């Protein structure tokens, strides 16, 4: 029972730390007003990396051994652990899925940033079709918050490109 108590203490520390990671991941992001769409992809790539690392740690043999011992001891901490494990898996899947969908926009980021306004406009119809496809098919990225954030970043990039073009001309 002494070993079980020590392992439950360790488990509670992990639970607290994982809850903190999940809470932080759900908080509003503070971003510059003129940030472009490539920052959205970078955000989700970073988040995917963090949650995948966390999943790898949770699935490690060390953690599995501790869980097995606590299961044998019928520890009450496992209920919280299983819930958090599920939440981490969902967050990791969301990040992975969002990266996959946002990569379909990656080919537009260069022309959006470096083209003249006229050339840039040639890419807008296919860009908007791709955004529409993401909205219609992504199980996670199809919220008004995500779409608003993405479209705002696309617009910021277009404005920045036009400003640069006007200043150079």
TrEMBL record:
An annotated GO cellular component: axonemal dynein complex
Molecular function, one GO term: dynein light intermediate chain binding
Domain Dynein heavy chain tail: 5-167
Domain of life assignment: Eukaryota
GO BP term, pick one: microtubule-based movement
Name recorded for this polypeptide: Dynein heavy chain 8, axonemal
Signal peptide span: none
Pfam families, alphabetized: DHC_N1 (PF08385)
């Amino acid at each position: 029972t002494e070993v079980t108590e020590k392992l439950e203490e360790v488990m509670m520390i992990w639970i607290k730390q994982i809850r903190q990671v999940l809470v932080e991941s759900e908080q509003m992001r503070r971003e510059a007003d003129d940030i472009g769409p490539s920052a959205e992809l970078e955000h989700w790539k970073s988040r995917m990396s963090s949650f995948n690392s966390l999943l790898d740690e949770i699935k490690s043999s060390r953690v599995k051994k501790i869980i097995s011992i606590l299961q044998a001891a019928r520890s009450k901490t496992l209920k919280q652990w299983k819930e958090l494990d599920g939440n981490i898996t969902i967050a990791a899947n969301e990040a992975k899925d969002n990266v996959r969908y946002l990569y379909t926009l990656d080919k537009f980021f260069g022309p959006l940033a470096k083209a003249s306004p006229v050339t840039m406009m040639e890419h807008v119809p296919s860009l908007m079709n791709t955004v529409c496809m993401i909205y219609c098919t992504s199980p996670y990225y199809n919220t008004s918050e995500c779409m608003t954030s993405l479209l705002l970043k696309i617009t910021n990039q277009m404005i920045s490109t036009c400003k640069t073009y006007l200043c150079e001309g």
